[in-house]
Design goal:
about 280 residues; mainly alpha; rod-shaped; disordered C terminus
Length: about 280
């Protein structure tokens, strides 16, 4: 049966030791396809005839950096340092910066800087998201300065992009934490339900088989004691019958406690040792 954590591997893997899980299976297509689609559309849209297009050299640099990001899916991540995955969104941030410089500040391509930001806050650690936030704000600032935007415009863009980037990072990481907490709690609840079902099954088996067999053995001994008549042998048999009756009583109490604890969710796997004093 598929568990909730199997459907959200990204929320669990980010706390593990698997380097570069973002660019590997499982769930690779669902993570990558939307971001690839936006990157391709943004890159191709710049080729539409536009008087604002400025430089083919910068456009080719953008394409080369984008292809470098695509190469991340071929890297042997298990042999790379733990900090290397953050280089991919940083590399794509550089690709978007070159695309902005190639197409002009009025082309609207600057919004694509949200793509590496969203990727990092969805699939990377917090410290990696901080690096990408800084890179996004820096890219927006550099593009504005190089394209001779007024100082007030540059400052305004820095403030707005900083606020927007931090807001997205904090909100998404907080949401990821809440979702992960819900998944962990759900998994614990499923484990408790499974344990309760096992307890019910064991209690049912005891009621239907073990207790009945002991009761039948007690009846057989009682009948044998009546057949042999009075004497030491009969006393021993009757004593055995009394012991079996006591065992049945104790077992029924245990079965009742087991079922009651299963209904109330009490864990009886560890019990305190009795006081010897």
């Amino acid at each position: 049966m598929e568990s909730p954590t199997d459907r959200w591997p990204g929320l669990i893997e980010t706390d593990g030791e698997t380097v570069g899980w973002q660019f590997q299976q499982p769930g690779l297509a669902s993570r990558v396809v939307p971001f690839v689609a936006v990157a391709v559309v943004a890159t191709v849209s710049v080729l539409v005839p536009d008087p604002g297009f400025r430089s083919w050299a910068e456009y080719l640099v953008s394409v080369a950096l984008l292809l470098g990001c695509a190469g991340a899916f071929l890297l042997p991540w298990q042999r790379l340092p733990v900090w290397t995955p953050v280089l991919v969104p940083l590399l794509y941030t550089g690709s978007v910066l070159a695309l902005i410089l190639a197409s002009g500040v009025s082309s609207g391509v600057g919004l694509v800087l949200l793509v590496p930001l969203l990727w990092s806050v969805l699939f990377h650690h917090r410290w990696e998201s901080v690096c990408v936030v800084v890179a996004v704000v820096a890219a927006q600032t550099v593009s504005s300065v190089l394209q001779a935007a007024p100082g007030a415009v540059v400052a305004r863009r820095m403030v707005l992009w900083s606020a927007l980037s931090v807001l997205i990072a904090v909100a998404v990481h907080g949401l990821r934490d809440r979702i992960k907490g819900s998944l962990v709690a759900n998994a614990a609840l499923q484990a408790e339900v499974s344990q309760a079902r096992d307890r019910d099954r064991i209690a049912g088996d005891l009621r239907e088989s073990v207790v009945r067999k002991i009761f039948d053995a007690g009846l057989a001994l009682h009948g044998a004691a009546a057949m042999i008549g009075e004497g030491p042998a009969q006393k021993r048999l009757m004593h055995g019958v009394a012991e079996l009756d006591e065992a049945i009583r104790a077992m029924r109490e245990s079965v009742f406690d087991l079922g009651r604890n299963a209904e109330s969710g009490i864990d009886t796997s560890e019990k305190p040792e009795p006081d010897e004093h």
